[in-house]
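Input (structure):
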């Protein structure tokens, strides 16, 4: 049965029908042969019994008057049965009273082929094969046994006829087998044809993705139901494909609408930035004009060294303010601008220490703690790093408690440079990622009110990303407050610096 699992269904059906027919033919032939053999044997026994009874009844006088010659004549009547090879009549003392021997053979000797078949039968069925059969019938007179008739018959003719019968049975069985093969070869199409059609249709669907294929159910049995279910399945798949296509089209329309809406919102944002930039530029320009005029008057009327030092710092602040004003004036294109600026080798430790010194001069009311390591270089833009630090320190000023230190740290490991700005004061909101979005200010400023537009941390994120770095915010564990950490890639060697600088300039960074 295992071998049938790997052959086509056509061969399976033919094989199953032939196996079933063969089993039926073998069982039927066996039953016929056994019945025929049993019937023939019973017939032989019946014939011999009848002959023994007839001879016994005719030999009662011979036994009574002790006439063996008449008894022998009675036995000679067995010549009509060619199978009898010996017969005798016994008296009441079981002594031979009369005998019969056939004087010649009534059967010719078997041919070689018949003899071979008989010998094979003897070898294969030793329990069934017997050379002779014997019948003994008592001779009764006045309810007394006065003798016995005993007849012995040969079974060679019986087995010879049985072999001939088996031959005919074999021929008929082969013919039945061939007829079954012809019929099964024709009838298997009733089952295999619809299944083959289903297989071909399924293969075509899987290869061509053509779900419009339909099969015709020509019957109402299980195969017809299977074909109808297959057609229904294809209809459902085709309908779902159509629905998916419609949903895809609707989704494309929604995406286009959403994109248009986002483009419009972005244009509004850019317009707002442009208007804000123009307004700030105009107002701050007026303020710087007045400041420059006042500083010029102070410079002409005072020559003391301390005043000159403050004048220089004031002019430096005004110069940096002009840089900020220029950045604000181009706020609509800030996101694209930071990614196009060239990056060079920069001593970050020295830059931050100089900025901390300036913060202490301009903001003496705040305590600044320098925790920066020396000799840390990165690949960066000096003006943008200053802008980033200003935004972080300004954010710390804005949200710190009075008379608490603001810690500015710089360190490095094997992969990154970490710039941290920590303060004690207002905690960060739960959603710490949104504070870096544009126009988002989620904390209440208490001490510092100059940066209320939500641009500061957004600019920090842009500058950090343009330097291939990241910025994160977290609550302090030791006290209430926040810590902002900006990471930059480590600048390993001078040759690496040159390669990174060249790569940054070529790629537009």
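Output (sequence):
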């Amino acid at each position: 049965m295992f071998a049938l699992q790997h052959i086509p269904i056509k061969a399976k059906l033919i094989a199953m029908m032939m196996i079933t027919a063969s089993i039926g033919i073998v069982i039927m032939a066996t039953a016929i042969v056994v019945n025929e053999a049993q019937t023939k044997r019973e017939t032989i026994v019946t014939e011999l019994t009848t002959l023994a009874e007839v001879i016994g009844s005719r030999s009662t006088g011979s036994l009574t008057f002790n006439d063996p010659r008449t008894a022998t004549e009675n036995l000679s009547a067995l010549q009509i049965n060619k199978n009898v090879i010996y017969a005798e009549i016994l008296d009441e003392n079981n002594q031979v009273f009369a005998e019969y021997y056939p004087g010649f053979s009534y059967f010719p000797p078997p041919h070689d082929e018949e003899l071979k078949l008989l010998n094979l039968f003897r070898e294969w069925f030793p329990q069934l094969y017997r050379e002779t059969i014997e019948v003994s019938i008592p001779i009764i007179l006045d309810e007394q046994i006065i003798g016995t008739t005993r007849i012995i018959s040969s079974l060679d003719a019986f087995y010879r006829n049985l072999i001939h019968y088996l031959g005919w049975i074999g021929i008929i069985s082969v013919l039945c087998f061939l007829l079954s093969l012809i019929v099964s070869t024709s009838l298997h199409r009733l089952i295999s044809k619809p299944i083959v059609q289903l297989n071909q249709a399924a293969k075509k669907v899987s290869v061509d993705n053509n779900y419009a294929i339909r099969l015709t159910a020509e019957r109402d049995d299980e195969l017809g139901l299977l074909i109808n279910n297959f057609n229904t399945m294809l209809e459902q798949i085709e309908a779902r494909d159509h629905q998916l296509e419609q949903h895809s089209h609707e989704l494309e329309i929604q995406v286009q609408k959403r994109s248009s809406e986002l483009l419009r919102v972005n244009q509004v944002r850019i317009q707002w930035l442009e208007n804000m930039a123009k307004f700030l530029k105009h107002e701050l320009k007026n303020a710087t004009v007045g400041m420059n005029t006042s500083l010029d008057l102070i410079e002409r009327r005072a020559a003391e060294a301390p005043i000159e030092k403050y004048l220089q710092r004031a002019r430096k602040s005004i110069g940096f303010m002009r840089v900020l004003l220029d950045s604000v004036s181009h706020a609509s294109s800030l996101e694209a601008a930071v990614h196009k600026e060239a990056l060079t080798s920069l001593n970050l430790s020295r830059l931050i220490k100089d900025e901390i010194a300036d913060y202490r001069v301009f903001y003496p009311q705040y305590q600044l703690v320098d925790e920066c390591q020396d000799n840390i270089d990165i690949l960066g833009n000096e003006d943008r790093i200053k802008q980033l630090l200003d935004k972080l320190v300004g954010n710390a000023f804005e949200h710190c408690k009075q008379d608490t230190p603001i810690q500015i740290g710089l360190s490095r490991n094997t992969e990154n440079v970490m710039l941290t700005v920590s303060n004690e004061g207002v905690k960060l909101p739960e959603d710490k990622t949104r504070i870096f979005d544009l126009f988002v200010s989620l904390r209440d400023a208490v001490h510092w009110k100059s940066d209320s537009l939500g641009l500061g941390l957004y600019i920090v994120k842009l500058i950090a990303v343009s330097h291939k770095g990241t910025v994160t915010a977290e609550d302090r564990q030791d006290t209430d407050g926040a810590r902002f950490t900006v990471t930059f890639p480590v600048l390993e060697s001078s040759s690496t610096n040159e390669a990174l600088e060249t790569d940054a300039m070529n790629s537009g960074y």
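Notes: Residues 327 and 334 are 7 Å apart (CA to CA). Confidence is low (pLDDT under 50) at residues 104-109, 445-453, 494-509.
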